[in-house]
Design brief:
Layout (H helix, E strand, L loop, with lengths): L9 E5 L5 H8 L4 E6 L2 H13 L5 E4 L11 E7 L7 H13 L1 E10 L23 H5 L8
Parallel strand pairs: 1-2, 1-4, 2-3, 4-5
């Protein structure tokens, strides 16, 4: 994947957790990486790891539901987080991410669907499960209509 975007591209890791994806990209020469998560502990761990590896990653604690894009990104990543917020919130995030994607940029979004039930440990928190194929449909439109 790292061959598909320029090393100078802006990258954002939304719901980064402890930053495995951000760290990987920084270790492979990407310089402009933003990463945030709702968990202060996860963000602090990412900060410690990036400092110990002498990597620069711009990190902050933030809520995806209140996040506003302020620049264009060559890569927007959201792995395994959108099903933990309401459908209207994840839908709006995807539409906003499309608008914040640089020309030729890439969005990588992983979202659980209702095709396979979530595991017992996360089921109570998976409030925004998508219907199978729903994410494909929302990427074709520019506004949320339900």
């Amino acid at each position: 994947m790292e061959n598909l975007i320029e090393k100078s591209s802006n990258i954002i890791d939304v719901g980064c957790g402890d930053g495995k994806n951000s760290l990987y990209l920084a270790e492979h020469g990407f310089k402009s990486i933003d990463a945030f998560d709702l968990s202060e502990n996860a963000v602090n761990k990412l900060r410690r790891l990036s400092i110990s590896r002498q990597l620069t990653i711009n990190t902050w604690v933030g809520d995806l539901c209140n996040f506003k894009f302020t620049k264009k990104y060559g890569l927007i990543m959201a792995f395994g987080i959108l099903h933990f917020i309401s459908k209207s919130d994840w839908y709006n995030f995807i539409i906003n991410a499309k608008c914040a994607t640089a020309i030729g940029g890439i969005n990588i979004i992983q979202l659980l669907t209702d095709k396979i039930p979530p595991s017992i440990d996360i089921a109570p928190y998976a409030i925004g499960l998508a219907a199978d194929g729903e994410i494909r449909e929302c990427t074709k439109t520019s506004s949320f209509v339900k």
